[in-house]
Amino acid sequence: MENTPVTSPNKKKEIGLAAALIPVIALIIVLYYNVRVFGDNALGGSNQFVLLIGGAIAAIVGFAHKIPYSKMMEKVSKNIKSTAGAILILLLVGALSGTWLISGIIPAMIYYGLQILNPDFFLPACVLICSVISIATGSSWTTSATVGIALIGIGDAMGMNLGMVAGAVISGAYFGDKMSPLSDTTNLAPAMAGTDLFTHIRYMAFTTVPTYALTLILFVILGLTQETSGPADTPGTLVAITESFTINGWLFIVPLVVIALIVKKTEPLIALLLGTLLGGFFAIFFQPELVAKLGGSEVLTFESAYKGVMNAITVETTVETTNETLKGLFTSGGMQKMMGTIWLIICAMVFGGVMEAIGALKTISNALLRVAKGIFGLFASTVTSCVILNVTASDQYLAIVVPGKMFSEAYKDKGLAPENLSRTLEDAGTVTSVLIPWNTCGAYQSGVLGVATLEYLPYAFFNIISPFMTLLFAAFNIKIRRLFKV
Question: Which range marks the domain in which residue 446 is found?
Fold first, then answer.
């Protein structure tokens, strides 16, 4: 008698492409509406909850395909556990930014950076200044809202094309945002791809440095074709900085120590913790009156020093200044400020975990890979997905999170190290968000700088070149790191 295989009625059904896309499409639609309703405040929590809704929809699809609830929660738990290191790094990033503010390290970078302004090379100077400040603060938004505004005003007084000036500001700000260990997107991308922060930064430099060099060359050429009416006048800003902080070159010891630790491949948590503690020590030594005031005292004592430094590390700290332009830059959120990004990571892990458990991410990535063959096709699919998410979901974080979770297994299957994915997420997801008028980044930068998105878009060279540079490296197999099994 011929044996007939018995099929269990409870056997899970393989998820198809149409079913796999249901949670993604629903997520994009709800996120688009959510951003329209809340605008820049969407990151305050509503976007995070929308990710949970997306996870719930994915779970319903999973139930329809006989995927057990326990398997989904097991994958969610595993995903959240995998981000523990990134979450700790984010907390220390917030702590470090607080002590670097009150110690005068960040203000010193601004003080010396502003003095390199020269009318003949104003545009590349804008790029350099914004790069330094954005690396120091880890925020392109803060850079544009402070020094960016001042540079726009100076450029306007010189009779410069404001689209060019804004493009230079944004190019520098986003270079710093990409390369700074203080940046939330720079922490988010490796967390999604499965690599560590400093490996990501070092590997990202391969595509970012030539892009930055090309950007500077283009702005030098543009700057030489522009006529200016006189030298930049920045003494008011410099005086305001020295009124609030004691500025000297010794403050640069701290960032140099952290950079040296990074170069020597010290564990990120150790490097950031040491940078935070050194920043606190330098604050007490160089800014004793400020630390005492932040500690609620007129005189520096052990208690007021401890309280002042701990406040800078943990909660929002504002240093008073007479200059309106500097007020935003002289504020740090400490560890507390990072909770929004940590919240986003956890909710993204819920959505990604359920999508992975039901097999949706594998189905979608396989479909994309069938269209785009080979290693280059994988990179091209990632870049395309990041840009599409920036256009449709209107949020750079989701342009990193969704493709990051969707393609992580595909990169491993191709034998590619996770830093290939994290680099591509930044080259395509982080930088293109500001080029889209209805994206939160595009709307913010346009509003702050007073220059329309489409006006500065042709001159945001760094942002335009970045995704093409990563594709160029993929096409010619340049610095594509492979996984090696020992």
Answer: 17-82+339-475
